[in-house]
Amino acid sequence: MGAIKRAFANNITTSGNLTALSAANLTGTIADARFPATLPAISGANLTGLAADFVKVASVKQTTEAASIAYTNSVISTTYDQYKIFVSNARCNTDNINWQFRVSFDNGSSYSSSSIYYRNVWATRDNEGSDSFIGRTGASGAMPLGHVQSQGNAAGECGNYEITLHNPHSTINKKIVSITGGFFDLDGDSRTHFGICMINSTSAISGIEFKAASNNIQSGDITIYGLKT
Q1: Distance between CA 197 and CA 212 in Å, rounded?
Q2: How would you classify the pairing of strands 159-165 and 82-92?
Q3: Low-confidence ranges of the chain (pLDDT < 50)
Q4: Most exposed: 16, 99, 207, 224, by fewest CB within 10 Å?
């Protein structure tokens, strides 16, 4: 039958049975380069072949007052075709004031305050009757994240939004920004916010700024993802 290797034979008892297999009986190393004696440390450097079509490019948790939070072309770059922006826990330091955003056409050197932001927003409010909707349209010098009755800043009142920046790099077409989310108004009522902002320019967008309509941002979290299409 051939010779039995000593390492295997040592596991046969005097009664002719194999010793029960357990970790205590496993000794030595496996003679195979695929199973090194020491496993490499787990790190991102060891991960290859992962898709890079949806990547976090920026994140901030603003916990102190700020005049604005801005991202230049180092974030809103041509690396990605679209951008998904999440804004949460957004608060202003003044009651009855909304967060708003503006875009840059010069790599973040300035942010346009011209009347190029055309909003078409629909909303509901928790103290309205059923099937009651409120709409807001028209041009302004910034796109408000809020409408009608502005956001409150009493304890717990904040705004939360998901924003999609479509075709920002086009120099042929005007831009569309879609927004969905909600906030608490100055009376403490919750309001939905969903619709679009049309940016009336064919210039490529190379930066975005968030600020309070007046005074300062009190706090807020922003995370930006780049998408390849």
Answers
A1: 17
A2: antiparallel
A3: 1-2, 4
A4: 16
